[in-house]
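Minutes, project check-in

Agenda point 3 was the complex the collaborators sent over. CS summarized: two entities, 358 residues total, and the question is how they sit relative to each other. Sequences were read into the notes so everyone works from the same version.
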Amino acid sequence: MTTAYFTASSVDGFIADPEDSLSWLLSRDVDREGPMGYDPFFAGVGALAMGARTYRWLREHEDGWPYDVPCWVFTHRDVDLPPGADVRVTTADVAAVHAEMVEAAGGRDVWLVGGGDLVGQFADRGLLDEVWVQYAPVALGAGAPLLPRRLELRLEEVARNRDFACARYTVAHETVRPG
Amino acid sequence: MTTAYFTASSVDGFIADPEDSLSWLLSRDVDREGPMGYDPFFAGVGALAMGARTYRWLREHEDGWPYDVPCWVFTHRDVDLPPGADVRVTTADVAAVHAEMVEAAGGRDVWLVGGGDLVGQFADRGLLDEVWVQYAPVALGAGAPLLPRRLELRLEEVARNRDFACARYTVAHETVRPG
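CS then shared the predicted structure for the full assembly.
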């Protein structure tokens, strides 16, 4: 069971541009079933978590709710819930929610969708195991940061998937939690 | 003849940490002669340019001056010149200096060492051809930005070199200069 941050990024480490747009990303070519692609990754996922901005973006841009596994949304605001979907709004501590997610995932992986600061909160508690970055071929110069933390990683895998340079890292837990 | 920005970066797009340290980088394992490594890259370089911070870092950390090709340093400050080295301090426009560099390079490549804003000034003038990034396995969360510009790239090559995920891009010139 792995808790993974799987995300696209600009080459300079931004996951959204200053207008919260993903046009720089969605215009690129990728094989979802290819190396380090979304489909094989998501096939192993049993629960997911995201922050308010990521959730709002999905609700505004996706036709219906795209996930069939439980999703926790960390927000203090009222949110419009998609009918029939298992979306759980929370303001609880990430460690408490993580325990619920692991149980709900039933042996499958936990996906931290973003944003970067929410993922950082999981990392702060030693709950982040892997980081998968798909670098789109663009520099943005500004926007929402990939992972606003100082965090030691270990490179596990590098691949090209069409327009994307992909890298998978494990988090060097020994630097944040002994034993 | 190519004008290339060849640099290491954290996974989240910083080329130096907030203390201007490179300890996060210099502790990693890399094969300088390996895939997308420094030695084959530098073998093709005939001239180089850098900003004041990069120059100061080199002077403080390198034993003597490490380059045997002409180097332009963009700074308005007085700088201590290494004896016997071809270091040319300039406050001129990057396009004028670029023409001098190309001539001095005699058919070899121009290396923009950094920092990111100086490289951005070359990009603004359509003078940046390639970006080579060697991602070290660490998130820094803050520091000196890789390339503070919005710039379209094309992915040419992906490689692993020991601890580093490496990507080479060409700059999509058609988006910045017609014809």
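Noted in discussion: Chain B has a mean pLDDT of 95.
Follow-up: revisit at the next meeting once the mutant set is ready.
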